[in-house]
Each structure stands twice: as C-alpha cells, then as structure tokens.
C-alpha cells in the first residue's frame, strides 16, 4: 500500500510524516477490521512525501521521477514491489481495480463514521457533477432563446427534478451533513446558472415593450394634448406587459429583481414621449406662424372701370 502525500513542508521529515500517516491508517484499520488480522499481515505500507508542486517544482519533478523508477522497474534496488507478494493478480489490473471500486461504491452499509463520511463525500461529489452537467445540457437552448415562456416555473421544475434525483442517488447518506451540503451547493449552482439566463431575457422584454410603445404612437398628431393622452395610456399598457412577462421569468423563491430594467423602460418611454411632444409643438408653432403671416398680408381690392366715348364725324371733320 503506497501512500503519496503531496505538497509537504520542507521542515517535515519523511520519517515523521510516515509515522503520522501509519498511525492514522492503523486507527482506521483497528475500527474496520473484523477478521482479527493485523494490518501488517495484509499490507506492506510505504509513504512517499512529494514537495510542493508550485513552490518546489524541481524537487517535485525529481521525486516523481524517483517514484516512477520504483514502480516501473521491478529490478531496481528500492523497487516498490516485493517478490513475496501474491502472484494472483489479473493481467488487466487497472480494469480489475475499477470493478472493485465500483463494487465498493455500491455498498450503502458503511458503518464506521470516518469511512462513511469519506464514502459520502465521494458519492455526493460524483452525483453532483453528473446532475449539474445534465442540468447545463437541459438549459442550453434557453441561453439563445429570445424569450422562454413561463421561464420561472419551468426552471423551478427543473431544479426540483434534479434535487429529487440527488436525494435518490445519495439515499444511503441522507443523514450525512456532507450530503445536505452538496445538495445545497447543487441548488445554488443551478440558480446561479439560471440567473445568467434571466438577466439576458429581461432586457429583451424591455426592448420589446419599448418597440411596442413606439408603434402605438406612430401615427401623425396635430394636437400635443391628444398625443400626451395616448402616450400615457400606451406607457401604462407596455409597463404592465413588461411586468407580466418579467414575473414569468422569476424563479419562485429566488432573490431576483427586474426593477432596474423597469426603471429603464419608464425612462425610455418618457424620453420618447418628450421628443415627440417637442416635434409636435414645433410643427404647431410653424403652422401658427404660417397662418399669422397669411392673415397679415394686405388684401387686394377689385375695381370695375367703364368708359364711354361719343364721337361724331361730319364732312368737314370733327
């Protein structure tokens, strides 16, 4: 049984480290063993201390190379293998070990607290990873959708579905604090991912409401009061449209808010209203000036002229 301890401190001797590790292993064995045989009867235990990978990279590489020689060269003087070991080892050792480990993972009845916590941590991490990756695959189409109908309700159903699967697959450790913590972490991770989709959808809803507001005011107005009355009605309609759609996107119970986007919608509609009112007022002013100019011009008077001539011609002239 070769135990490698990474990132060891320079001031800790390998002998002291080995003694500490052996004490821990022996304590676990004493609680777990039911056959009455000692740990040394079944295992030859060795402990290898590896320097810190980042801060002592050269020493780490040298120690790994040394360990490789011990494992890969049976004829080396300090080989890790002993000729007295059992020869009943399958040729395909890696697959054999994986099968053994799969069998161990499936054992729910682990009685010792240290063992149970270790098994719970491994199993919960494995289930967490599998379920979260499946969750990411499920929500991928939502990331490119312009709008997801009933996003909040569907997201909550998806969360609950994965949490139920987590409970089912970790039922053997349901009383473990580790299982409860990992379940909470899974829920939080899913909510965080869903929130990134939420913050993409809400601006699209706001943009759609602004567009509908502008379309509702697209006709020509001659009176600014008529325009203001219609603008107020359209603003209320589109704000209600925004709120209804935004509410559909909030996962029940999630601390998400769309108030900033709502305020931006109100600001955008008000700015557009002010621009249109200014344009209408300018047009009204121009029309008024034109009417005033036309009224100020002098009017032309019509006169009727008639002329009469009486000429008399005689033999001698006039």
Helix fraction by DSSP (H/I, runs of at least 4) = 55-70%
Trace the largest sheet across and list its strands. Answer: 1-2
Q: Structural class of the helix and strand makeup?
A: mainly alpha
The major pleated sheet works out as: 2 strands, parallel
The Rg value, from CA coordinates, equals 44 Å
On the 0-100 scale, what is the average pLDDT? 82
How many DSSP H or I helices?
A: 9
Shape: elongated
Q: Work out the number of β strands.
A: 2
How many angstroms separate the termini?
Answer: 159 Å
In the predicted model, the low-confidence regions spanning at least 5 consecutive residues are none
Order of helices and strands: EHHEHHHHHHH
Strand content: under 5%
Offer a concise description of the structure.
By secondary structure, the chain is mainly alpha-helical. The chain contains nine helices and two strands, in the order E-H-H-E-H-H-H-H-H-H-H.
SSE layout:
Layout: E1 2-8, H1 14-32, H2 39-42, E2 46-51, H3 57-72, H4 93-105, H5 113-139, H6 151-169, H7 177-216, H8 224-249, H9 259-296
Parallel strand pairs: 1-2
Helix pairs in contact: 5-6, 5-7, 6-7, 7-8, 7-9, 8-9
What does this structure look like?
- It is a single chain.
- With 318 residues, this protein is mostly helical.
- 64% of the residues lie in helices and 4% in strands.
- The chain contains nine helices and two strands; from the N terminus they run E-H-H-E-H-H-H-H-H-H-H.
- The chain has helices at 14-32, 39-42, 57-72, 93-105, 113-139, 151-169, 177-216, 224-249, 259-296; strands at residues 2-8, 46-51.
- A two-stranded parallel ribbon has the order 1-2.
- Helix 5 packs antiparallel against helix 6 (151-169).
- The longest helix has 40 residues, at 177-216.
- The radius of gyration is 44 Å and the shape is elongated.
- The chain starts with a strand and ends in a 22-residue tail after the last helix.
- The relative contact order is 0.06.
């Amino acid at each position: 049984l070769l135990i490698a301890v990474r990132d060891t401190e320079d001031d800790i001797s390998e002998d002291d480290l080995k003694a500490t590790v052996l004490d821990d292993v022996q304590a676990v064995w004493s609680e777990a063993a039911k056959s009455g045989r000692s740990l040394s009867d079944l295992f030859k235990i060795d402990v290898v201390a590896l320097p810190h990978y980042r801060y002592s990279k050269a020493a780490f590489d040298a120690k790994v190379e040394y360990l490789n020689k011990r494992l890969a060269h049976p004829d080396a003087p300090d080989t890790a293998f002993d000729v007295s070991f059992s020869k009943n080892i399958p040729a395909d050792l890696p697959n054999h070990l994986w099968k053994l480990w799969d069998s161990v993972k499936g054992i729910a009845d682990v009685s010792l607290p240290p063992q149970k916590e270790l098994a719970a941590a491994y199993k919960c991490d494995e289930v967490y990873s599998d379920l979260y990756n499946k969750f990411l695959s499920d929500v991928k189409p939502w990331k490119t959708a312009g709008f997801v109908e009933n996003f909040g309700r569907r997201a909550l159903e998806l969360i609950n579905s994965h949490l139920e699967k987590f409970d089912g697959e970790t039922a053997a450790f349901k009383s473990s604090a580790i299982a409860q913590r990992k379940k909470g972490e899974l829920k939080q991770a899913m909510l965080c991912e869903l929130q990134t989709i939420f913050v993409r959808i809400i601006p699209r809803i706001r943009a759609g409401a602004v567009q509908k507001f502008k379309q509702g005011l697209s006709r020509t107005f001659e009176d600014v009061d008529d325009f203001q009355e219609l603008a107020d009605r359209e603003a209320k309609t589109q704000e209600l449209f925004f709120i209804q759609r935004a509410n559909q996107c909030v996962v029940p119970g999630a601390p998400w808010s769309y108030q900033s986007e709502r305020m931006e919608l109100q600001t955008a509609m008000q700015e557009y209203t002010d621009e249109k009112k200014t344009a209408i007022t300018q047009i009204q002013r121009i029309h008024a000036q034109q009417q005033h100019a036309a009224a100020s011009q002098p009017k032309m008077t019509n006169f009727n002229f008639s002329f009469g001539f009486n000429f008399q011609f005689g033999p001698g002239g006039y």
